[in-house]
Amino acid sequence: xxxxxxxxxxxxxxxxxxxxxxxxxxxxxxxxxxxxxxxxxxxxxxxxxxxxxxxxxxxxxxxxxxxxxxxxxxxxxxxxxxxxxxxxxxxxxxxxxxxxxxxxxxxxxxxxxxxxxxxxxxxxxxxxxxxxxxxxxxxxxxxxxxxxxxxxxxxxxxxxxxxxxxxxxxxxxxxxxxxxxxxxxxxxxxxxxxxxxxxxxxxxxxxxxxxxxxxxxxxxxxxxxxxxxxxxxxxxxxxxxxxxxxxxxxxxxxxxxxxxxxxxxxxxxxxxxxxxxxxxxxxxxxxxxxxxxxxxxxxxxxxxxxxxxxxxxxxxxxxxxxxxxxxxxxxxxxxxxxxxxxxxxxxxxxxxxxxxxxxxxxxxxxxxxxxxxxxxxxxxxxxxxxxxxxxxxxxxxxxxxxxxxxxxxxxxxxxxxxxxxxxxxxxxxxxxxxxxxxxxxxxxxxxxxxxxxxxxxxxxxxxxxxxxxxxxxxxxxxxxxxxxxxxxxxxxxxxxxxxxxxxxxxxxxxxx
Length: 512
Fold this sequence. Notes:
This protein is mainly β and 512 residues long. It is 6% helix and 41% strand. It is built from three helices and 31 strands. The longest helix is centred in the first third of the chain and has 22 residues, at 2-23.
């Protein structure tokens, strides 16, 4: 009898447990759907960064819901609290599957809750960018500045910019031999919230930095002589500084010195946020060896040097090229010098470090006083292989996406960027993945194997083939208003096989 009573009690407890478990779920009908993105010609594209999630409310009144989306590429989960039964989640990674799970909290502290009976899945679309202009060739694409050649970078001005507020100022390498280097362009008309206004600039002469010579560059260039690290200025990034950093514009740039080594360095503007005059002397332009040499008005400060440099030297680094600095531009384009700011660099190595000499991206972090290239246990720069021309874009918090040319050639010798097959791709980083959550470290980046393809359309809406897409280079990609609804790309564009000089063109993201 005691055995029978014990068995009956066990069965009762099991039934109660089963009923309790059933009561902890509800038939939510959870769904994940794509969202309208935009159109190019007659073709509609779904959003590359948004998904719509919906469900049916449980019979018990929910105080709020906790929606969790898990990234199908990295497995990282993120949760958000919502109060309605339908939400459009933004800021997601492109071309990425996501799995949604849902909890209904029956009280504010979620001490009592119900789980949706089943998860649901959906996927964001790949990014589609459309070249501006007409037709289906670079020959009919818009040239954003009449004498533009390469390295275009736009600086958006906020209310702090005085007369430039609401404008974008362009820094670029012009075609003209006597002005090659870093020239200034001003918007022809309009403001930074219009794609059409962002497609036209007027050249401004008499300012900026002039390239003295071209080491190993095009035939006919003047030979490099003298002693300066800034003989052949190229890629640039102007960064406005906030009041705590002294204000004005800090012009970071890449330059090869007369020693044939390439470094990253900067000059500060002498005209505040106007950002055109970088000569501490009487001139408003830097164009002589004396200007760039020690004691001259344009003697730069090196921030990423190469192996053997006494100042800012980096073990194993032979050249530092095509750099970009990542900081939270969605909130303010002025940089406050916060430790944890990062720089990505197209790096070339030399012994004792990697033999994969070309097209690697190294990662440096600002510690509040200097830029430190992150290194492995052997003291060599950590790097992502087969990346060229990285361009980080702030997407919110400590999250960034980074575009790059995937260049799998040239592992033993420098190749030709005009003819390499190097499709455009994108990876993502979140400072919360590893290390300091307030900073983006090397380990926070996805791997090259996890990169998503980025598609590019001609003005008529047709798709570029990989050869034409590979002719894009030196990207500058930004959200001029801070909103992802308007995303602009400036890039070198050239027609493969024609021998014609590249120009600076523009593309717009069709499906934010």
